[in-house]
Amino acid sequence: MKLGLIEKRTFWLLMLASFFNGFVFGTFNIQDIVAKKALLALDWQITILVMLWPLSNLFSIWWGKALEHSKSISKFFVLTAFIGRLVLLFMLWTHSYYSYLIIMIFVFSFNSLLSPAQNSIYQNNIATENRGVLFGYTVSLVTIIAIAFSYSAGKLMDINEDWFRYIFSVAGLMGCISSLLMAMIKIENKKYNAAKLKLQQLFVTPIIRTVDILKKNKDFAIFQRNFFIYGIGFMIILPAIPKFLVEYLKMDYSQTFMAKGVISQLGILFLAPIAGRIHDNKNPSFFTFLAFFTLGCYPVILLISSFLIGSGIENYVVYFAYLVFGIGMSAIVISWNMSSICFAGEDDVSMYQSVHVTLTGLRALIVPFIGYLVLRYFGVKAVFIISIVMFWTASILSYLEYLRICKSGFKYPAQFGRIVKYFRRIPPRG
How does DSSP classify residue 92? Predict the structure, then answer.
């Protein structure tokens, strides 16, 4: 893999930023457990908390529109550094669930800016054949730091759970540095709309543009439909996890953080670069078919563990479930962040990725709440079963879409011709 001068400089700044960003993602993996155990949050309060990350993605289409009209994206990263990351310092004075919630609202709201902004960097500064694998390396580095940070946090909070305030504050400082490093990346030849952005264009036009993109790009719309179904399986289980680990299995901080913050990240750590290389050479629908199927095994194993409570091995079964989860997520992380580039073609990818991210927010409006209702009235096992059905439905639909693409001779944008040629050599099975 040969990298040009711009690619090398961009890649090393991305890697350096990823190192510091790993601290923030370490807190993302444990924030629901902290609320449940340290702040004694109720199930409905946990539901609101786990909705924040995906729900904040609704802002993404507006961030995307702003990015389309900006020649430089550095100011957006600076804004994220000081408002979306450094705000975690206020955790030092947090003693209630509600103050904790307000801080996390700021963090996640600005987090929805990072994905379209990052995609713009990859589209303009990184060659097509290198995007997936280089992104995979940055993901692995984020994961290494997140694993170490989560593991250390678990050990510290088993000693004194009030130390979560200092843990989150450190993450805020590291996240600020990460965003400032991203701001140092100069995008080469970025296409942008030089016209002054009016308020109507900022708030109304993105919604119209979102509908227009989905209408005109049918393949992107189908891809998003399948991702939406997968997302239901992913989100409906979120309110049940803290209750299952803390109340059903009686796990302490070290055990819960080991499952959610360490083992769940191992697949991403070791497989993300490999998944990135495969993504660069595979049809996005076939790629997600495999990812969705693998993730469907995660709630299957959790369901099995629910029948083993009291046997002494239930925790180990849960650990295995999170190992499988990590394997599936190694592919999802790549596809979630990189696939929009494929469908955008010569268009500015920031708006396509914003549509993708915003649809995540739309399902977050209702799915976690449905998960809470199922959990309350039917129990944790029912939540696991619904999650399995959604994951595997998305997997089947993705494979059917792959077959349709192969039969129709659909052509990707010009820069993806190599992928298409590669695929046409492999006839679909079954």
Answer: G
